[in-house]
Amino acid sequence: MFRNNYDSDALTFSPQGRIFQVEYAQEAVKQGSVVVGIVSKTHAVLAALKRNAEELSSYQKKVIEIDAHYGIALAGLASDARVLSNFMQQQSLSSRLTYDRPIALAEITHRLSIRAQKSTQQHGRRPYGVGLLIAGIDTTGPHLFEFQPSGVTQEMVACAMGARSQMARTYLERHVDEFEACGKDELIKHALRALKESLSQDKELTVDNTSVGISGEDEAFILLDGQSVVPWLNATFENREGGEESMEVDS
Amino acid sequence: MTSIGTGYDLDNSVFSPDGRNFQVEYAVKAVENGGTSIGIRCKDGVVLATEKLVTSKLMKAGANKRIATVDRNIGMVSAGLLPDGRYLVSRARQETASWRQIYKSPMPVASLAGRLGSFVQMFTMNGGLRPFGITAIVGGWDSEGDMAVDGQVGAGPSVGAGGKASGKKYGGPFLYMIEPSGLYWGYYGAATGKGRQAAKSELEKLDLSAGALSLEQGVKEAARIIYVAHEDSKDKEFELEMTWVSGLSGPTKGQHQEVPKELREEAERLAKKALEGDDEMEE
After folding, report:
1. Closest approach of chain A CAs to the CA of B187, in angstroms?
2. Are A32 and A73 in contact (CB under 8 A)?
3. pTM of this prediction?
4. So where does this one cross the membrane (chain B) (predicted)?
5. Does ipTM top 0.90?
6. Record: fold of B36-282
């Protein structure tokens, strides 16, 4: 990779007005495994592809519940995400304690953005190397927000980030008009199909590597992991190979 | 820029031999790539408008507002790095809130511009910081009389410090623009971002200093100017976002608000029509 004079910290503008350290942090997001989020009129859903470091290791957590009404999916440095998810959990709890109400998703996203912005303008820190999808429901309905290391946050109807996420994004753009009317089942299926688009040739969605998070009207955020995700995989992909095999692992 | 790459442009708060602070100049470059934002000071209010580029069709339409309300009577919009803009808004909100705490009255726009200018300047002098990659436009309405504020005790003196001298005019619409260097000026019409040149020349045609343009007319001109400024990047889609603030007797009753949907759509219709008219004349 080429080097230039203006990329050694996040406090230096290049002559074109770019901040390379922030752009490099954004690259870290693209190295993470793919995550997808979609929102309908009633539900918000997250789906993620988990990776394991080696055959015998466990899989990296990709979807985290923050509060009863929302959760996040992460792409990039998982340890940075843990710092941010701790922050979000604290903020969410303090909202419930102080105001006796779940924090609005736009508000928590805004606080996250302000926090991330500081590490791109103040000395002694580096930008966070993680992108997040924040999905859940509050008094104004279901929401999906995208968070980038630069501190940019945007509300989306659907979003994908991480390695090879362009394929998932193409799927989402093709079906973007259908999402609003989707029920819970259809929305999860769309998310899983989008996720599958981004897999490399030799890979498949399995009981081990798939995570789904969902919240809806009068439904608390649920994390579907391991065996609880199998019915959804079977329902989404008919004639799935290896479905029974993964059941055997558990028995 | 002759001394580029000679080492004087790598650190903030370092002068080059010819007395320039390159990092600030580079920050201005970040502003010049942002979507166009404008502000118009009319005789009975201020309009703020911005061109919000739609970078993905997966973005939620109508969400992701770019113009922020700082205090009830003040709005703010910026061009450049979005998170920097949001950070400056949060600072502005702290300033106006603490002003209310201390003085029991809303902060004048001029005072806010001054405070923000000082804040932004600090980021050009300190080695541990970088300048803001934004130019911010601040617009608002200062009340003509003393406004009742929650927690206020007594009416305050009628003249002298803290009061109003008789026979003098107070309050009205105000508009300021703050640059990455911390420099700020008051404006009749302000423009920043990618299409600022086109927007500026359109603003100059309006003869705003005469103080004849009405707020409603200003809304229509603002929409048209954003559409004109967008001509250069026609292939990209955008959403027009507009807010306004008038005096107590005006349509917003002294508050900074989004321009009502009907009026915005009417202004957009006229803007498109005006552009088509221009094209025909060229042909």
Report:
1. 25
2. no
3. 0.89
4. none
5. no
6. Glutamine Phosphoribosylpyrophosphate, subunit 1, domain 1 (3.60.20)
